[in-house]
Amino acid sequence: MTRQPDPRRRNEQSRRAILQAAAELCVQVGFAATTVEGIAARAGVGKQTIYRWWPSKAAVLLEYMQDLRAATADFLDTGDVLTDLVAQTTAVQRLLTSDAGAIWRGLLVTAQTDDAAASGVRELIERAIDDGRARLATAQRDGQIRADVDLDIAVELIFGPLYHAWLLRARTLPEQHMAEVLRTLFAGLAPTPA
Amino acid sequence: MTRQPDPRRRNEQSRRAILQAAAELCVQVGFAATTVEGIAARAGVGKQTIYRWWPSKAAVLLEYMQDLRAATADFLDTGDVLTDLVAQTTAVQRLLTSDAGAIWRGLLVTAQTDDAAASGVRELIERAIDDGRARLATAQRDGQIRADVDLDIAVELIFGPLYHAWLLRARTLPEQHMAEVLRTLFAGLAPTPA
Amino acid sequence: MTRQPDPRRRNEQSRRAILQAAAELCVQVGFAATTVEGIAARAGVGKQTIYRWWPSKAAVLLEYMQDLRAATADFLDTGDVLTDLVAQTTAVQRLLTSDAGAIWRGLLVTAQTDDAAASGVRELIERAIDDGRARLATAQRDGQIRADVDLDIAVELIFGPLYHAWLLRARTLPEQHMAEVLRTLFAGLAPTPA
Amino acid sequence: MTRQPDPRRRNEQSRRAILQAAAELCVQVGFAATTVEGIAARAGVGKQTIYRWWPSKAAVLLEYMQDLRAATADFLDTGDVLTDLVAQTTAVQRLLTSDAGAIWRGLLVTAQTDDAAASGVRELIERAIDDGRARLATAQRDGQIRADVDLDIAVELIFGPLYHAWLLRARTLPEQHMAEVLRTLFAGLAPTPA
DNA sequence: CGCTAATCGAGACGGTACGTCTTGTCTTTTG
DNA sequence: CAAAAGACAAGACGTACCGTCTCGATTAGCG
Fold this sequence. Notes:
4 copies of one chain form a homotetramer. Chain A folds into 2 domains: 10-53, Orthogonal Bundle (Arc Repressor Mutant, subunit A), CATH 1.10.10; 68-187, Tetracycline Repressor, domain 2, CATH 1.10.357.10. Chain A is built from 9 helices and no strands. Chain A has helices at 12-29, 36-43, 47-53, 57-70, 81-97, 99-111, 115-141, 151-168, 176-187. In chain A, 36% of the residues are buried. At the C-D interface, helix 6, helix 7, helix 8 and helix 9 of C face helix 6, helix 7, helix 8 and helix 9 of D. Chain A binds a DNA duplex through residues 5-6, 8-11, 14, 35-38, 40, 44-49, 51-52, 56.
C-alpha cells in the first residue's frame, strides 16, 4: 500500500522538463533506447520523481502525446466528405512521419505488451476513430455515402491502409497516396454493372 | 572481426529444438518475457549456440515464422476473387489469433526498432502482399475488378483494415467481419449514380 | 570514464554480508570456484553492489584479510626475541592452516597474475615483514642478534621456510617445527670454531 | 569410461610441437592467458590431440618442465658446501627469473588448486630438495655442518627465503643476495658466546 | 512568518538479462 | 581412419537498466 503523492505540491516545472526530455530522447535515440534513467538525467530530475507520477516511460510519453493532441485542431467539415477525409488523413500522415511519429510508434509497440499503456493508447485511437465516424455519419445523412454502408467498417477502411503502410511497410508514402486510396475506396473495386 | 561458423557442421537437432522452444516460450510467457537465456535452457542448449547462428531472439522467431509459412498453403484461385479473398483473409485472421499470432505480433513490434529484424519481417509481409496482388491481377484481367483500379492500393485496402483491427484495436473480430469489409470495399462508399 | 560511487552512502550491512559470504564460500568451495555471482547470491546482494565497490573477487577477499589483520594482536615483546618469534611464527602458521589460510592462499595465487591484487597482497606481506624486522631491530640493539646481521635477510630467513613448507610442500607442519627452525637459524649451520 | 589411446601410435612430432607451443605461449602471454585452444592453434594441432594425452594445460607445461630438468646439470660437489650451495641457488634463481620461471610460477599457482597438478609439481620440488639434502649430508659428514643440525630443516632454510622473495615479494634480487643469505645462515643469528 | 511535512535531486540497492568468453567434450570433414 | 577443425553444453564474466529505497536540502502550505 503505497501512499499516493499530493498533486498540489507537484513541481510543474519538473513535469514539463520530464515530458520534454522524454520526447527529445525518444526522437534522438529511439523509443527502446529511451530509459527512465536517461529521461531523469536529461531532465535534471531524480528517477523517483518520474516514478512518483508515472508508472512507466510509456505513461510519460503517452501524456506527451495527449498534450500534443489537445493542442491540435479537430476534423473540419467543409461539406465535402472526400475533401475533409483527404485533409484529415494527410494531417495524420504528417504526424506519423514527424518526430512525434517515433513516439507514437513506440507507444503502439508498448501497447502490444503493456495493458496499462494499451488502454491509454486505445483511448487516443478510439477518439480519432470516433471523430472520423462522426464525420462519415454526417456525410451519410447528406447522401455522400450510401445508406447501407456500415460506418464502423468504413472508418477502418480509411485508417487501416494508412497505418498498414506506416507500421508494416515503413515506406514514406507520397502525400497524394491517401487521396488515391480514398478515391478507390469511394468508387469500390467492382466494375459498375453495365 | 568475428569468424563466422561453418553451416555444414551445424546441428540440425539443436536448431529445431531452439525454434520450438522459442515459439513455445513466446506463446506461454509472451514475446517480451521470452529471453535468449530462457530459450537456451528450455531447448537444452548453450546460449552461445543460439548466438552463433542468430543475432537475437527476434531472428530465431522470424525463422520460426518463415518455416511456418513455408509449410502453409498458397492463395487459392477458385475463379471468384471475392470468395478467394474471403478465404485468404480469414486464414490470415485465424493465424493472427492463433499461437503464432503472439509471435508475429512480437516480431512486428521488434521490427519497429531493430533494423535487422525489420528487413526480415518486411520480406514476409511483402511476399504476402505480392501473392495478394497477383490474385487481384488475375481478377482484373477477368473483369472482376475495374481496369482502372491501382492494385497496390487495392491490396493495402484489403490487408490494412485487418491489421488495423488486430494491432491497434486488439479486438477479436467475428469471422464474417472480413467478408463484410470486402463486400463494402468492392461496392465502394459512394452511392451509385442513379 | 566511470563515475565512482559516494562512499558516504555505502550500506555497511551489505559490505559486511559480502565479506562474510565471500570468506565462507572460499572456505567451502575453494578460491577458484568462488564466483562473484555466488558471493552476491549468498550475501543476498546484487552483483552490481559488489562491482560498485570492488574490482574483483580478489579485492573483496583482500579486504576480508585486511579486516582480519586489523583485528589481530601485534607482535609481542617479552624481552626474549626467540620466544617472541616462536609465538609470532606459530600464530602465522595457525592462520595459514585455518580457514583464512585458504583465502590467503587464493590471494597469493591471484597476486601472481593480477597486478592490482598483487599490490594489495604485497602491502599486507610487507607490513608483516616490517613488524618482524622491527622486533629484530630491538633484539639487535639488545645484543640478542649479532650486530653485523642484515635484518632484511634475517626476516626472510624466518618467514621464507614457513611459506615454503606451506605453499610448496603442502604439509601440515607440527607446531614445534618453527621453534626448531628458529633455533637452527639462531645457532647457524656452521660448526662453532673451536 | 573413456578409452585410453594407444601410446605406440602417438605422434612424437606433435608432442614436441605442443610442448614448445605451450612454453612459448606461456612466456609471451602469461600462464593464465595460455589456453589449450591457443596451444593447439599455435602447435597446428587439434584440441583433442592435447586432451587425448594430457588432462590439462598444467600437465603439458609440467611435462615441459620435467624435460627441462632432465636436461639440466646436477648439484656439483667441489668439496666446499658453501660454494656449491651458492652455485646451486644462483642457478635456481636464474631459472626462476628466466622464461621458464613464468611457467614454473604458473605451475606452482595451479598446484594450489589442482590436485593432479600438485602431485606432479611436488615431485619436482621434492627431487630438488632431496638433491640439496644429499649434498648437505655429505657436508655434515665432512664436518662442514654441525652434527646436530636437522638437514630437513636446513634445506628448507636454504630454499625458503629464495622462493619467499620470488613468489611473495616479486622483487628481482641481486645475484649475490643468495650468497649473503647463505653466509648469514651458516653463521647463525645469535652472537657467539664470548 | 515560521513550522513542518512532502517533494525534490541524487544515487545506492537487490535483481534480471544481456552478449561475450572460456572450458572440456563431441562431431564432422579432410588429408 | 586418424587427426584437424570446430560446434557444442555449460556457466561465469562485467554491464546496463529496472523499479524500490534512503538520504539531506529545498519548498510549499498550514497555523
